[in-house]
């Protein structure tokens, strides 16, 4: 005997619509129109057409290269977007998005060519989406990268109305014989640190847990150490190093870059240190920005945890030939990127742990 109940038919008085399900085609079209002036700012001569087609077209300048290799990278901004949403400030989070992607590309020596974004939201607010895209466009301008298109998706029922999340993919190009990485790193190379602008876009789950849940601080509260509100400090955009790194690689002997993101300084630098070598880094060479001490003290977060969750003030690292250290720092200074000698590459101690390829030694001053 079949115990299943028959499906009941409940006719409705009017026809169902997409808008009634929470998706507005008109809002999407309005958002696209509002985006266009921002995307035009990023246009490179290789870009064919504009926003609105089914696919983006980019004429690859293969004649400029002897043996071109394409590089690609995808990333997002993590839970930093929750701070932007809580503050109702949306025109900088796109800079973070671009930084996370293009600075991964340049780590292998690739010039960023073009980027596509993906924005998912609970309810499509055209002005908010346009504000986000204005930041993405600004990030692309700062990195010399064209914003060629993307997707804005409305997900009612899956996300709250004011929630959104961001992701992007970028493509770059590099000569095959100019690819940077661990195979170029040698004993005696010098590790140069480039200063971060703040927390950047990693560790925000820890930041929110410590400052908003444990300490119960207000994002609108003024913090003397920062000279601004907590929310403004946490929304400081990620520094974009792409053009600086390309200039450095063009004019000095750079062997590797490490973009310092999730996992921290030692773990990310270890990715470009070959077996048999080790990077010895000295904490005494810099003082982390106040925001890191602020998080550490409010959450009683131990140093190993801090150094795994955060960049601690170092956003990018260059491994350069010893004869080019002064020139490299002069170039970075001229480009307004604070830098310092962080450590050096040595032959690994055969009695030590062969799997540990980057060490932090000493203590930060005043941290």
TrEMBL record:
Its EC number is 6.3.3.1. It is found in: Cytoplasm. GO terms for molecular function: ATP binding; phosphoribosylamine-glycine ligase activity; phosphoribosylformylglycinamidine cyclo-ligase activity. Residues 186-348 form the PurM-like C-terminal domain. GO terms for biological process: 'de novo' IMP biosynthetic process; adenine biosynthetic process. Its main location: cytoplasm. Pathway: Purine metabolism; IMP biosynthesis via de novo pathway; 5-amino-1-(5-phospho-D-ribosyl)imidazole from N(2)-formyl-N(1)-(5-phospho-D-ribosyl)glycinamide: step 2/2. InterPro entries: PurM-like_C_dom, PurM-like_C_sf, PurM-like_N, PurM-like_N_sf, PurM_cligase. Keywords: ATP-binding, Cytoplasm, Ligase, Nucleotide-binding, Purine biosynthesis. It catalyses: 2-formamido-N(1)-(5-O-phospho-beta-D-ribosyl)acetamidine + ATP = 5-amino-1-(5-phospho-beta-D-ribosyl)imidazole + ADP + phosphate + H(+). GO terms for cellular component: cytosol. It comes from the Bacteria. Residues 69-174 form the PurM-like N-terminal domain. The keyword ATP-binding applies. Pfam families: AIRS, AIRS_C. Belongs to the AIR synthase family. PANTHER family: TRIFUNCTIONAL PURINE BIOSYNTHETIC PROTEIN ADENOSINE-3, TRIFUNCTIONAL PURINE BIOSYNTHETIC PROTEIN ADENOSINE-3-RELATED. This is Phosphoribosylformylglycinamidine cyclo-ligase. It comes from Nakamurella antarctica.
């Amino acid at each position: 005997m079949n115990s299943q109940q028959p499906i009941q038919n409940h006719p409705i008085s009017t026809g169902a619509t997409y808008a009634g399900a929470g998706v507005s085609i008109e809002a999407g079209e309005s958002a696209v129109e509002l985006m266009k002036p921002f995307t035009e700012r990023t246009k490179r001569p290789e870009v064919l057409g504009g926003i609105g087609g089914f696919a983006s077209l980019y004429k690859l300048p293969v004649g400029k290269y002897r043996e071109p290799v394409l590089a690609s990278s995808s990333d997002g901004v993590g839970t930093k977007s929750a701070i932007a949403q809580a503050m109702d400030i949306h025109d900088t989070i796109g800079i973070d998005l671009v930084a996370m992607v293009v600075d991964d590309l340049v780590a292998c020596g690739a010039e960023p060519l073009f980027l596509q974004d993906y924005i998912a939201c609970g309810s499509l607010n055209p002005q908010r989406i346009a504000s986000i895209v204005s930041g993405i466009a600004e990030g692309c301008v700062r990195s010399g990268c064209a914003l060629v298109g993307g997707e804005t998706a409305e997900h009612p029922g899956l996300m709250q109305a004011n929630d959104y999340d961001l992701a992007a993919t970028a493509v770059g190009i590099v000569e095959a014989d100019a690819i940077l990485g661990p195979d170029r790193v040698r004993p005696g190379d010098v590790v140069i640190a480039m200063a971060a602008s703040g927390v950047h876009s990693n560790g925000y789950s820890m930041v929110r847990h410590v400052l908003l849940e444990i300490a119960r601080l207000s994002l609108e509260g003024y913090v003397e150490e920062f000279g601004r509100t907590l929310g403004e400090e946490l929304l400081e955009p990620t520094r974009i190093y792409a053009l600086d790194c390309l200039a450095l690689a063009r004019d000095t002997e750079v062997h590797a870059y490490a973009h310092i993101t999730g996992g921290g300084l030692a773990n990310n630098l270890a990715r470009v240190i070959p077996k048999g070598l080790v990077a010895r880094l000295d904490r005494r060479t810099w003082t982390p920005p106040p925001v890191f001490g602020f998080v550490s003290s409010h959450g009683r977060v131990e140093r190993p945890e801090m150094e795994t969750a955060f960049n601690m003030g170092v956003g990018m690292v260059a491994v350069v030939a010893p004869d080019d250290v002064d020139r490299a720092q002069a170039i970075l200074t001229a480009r307004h990127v604070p830098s310092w000698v962080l450590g050096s590459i040595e032959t690994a101690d055969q009695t030590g742990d062969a799997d540990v390829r980057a060490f932090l030694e000493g203590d930060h001053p005043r941290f």
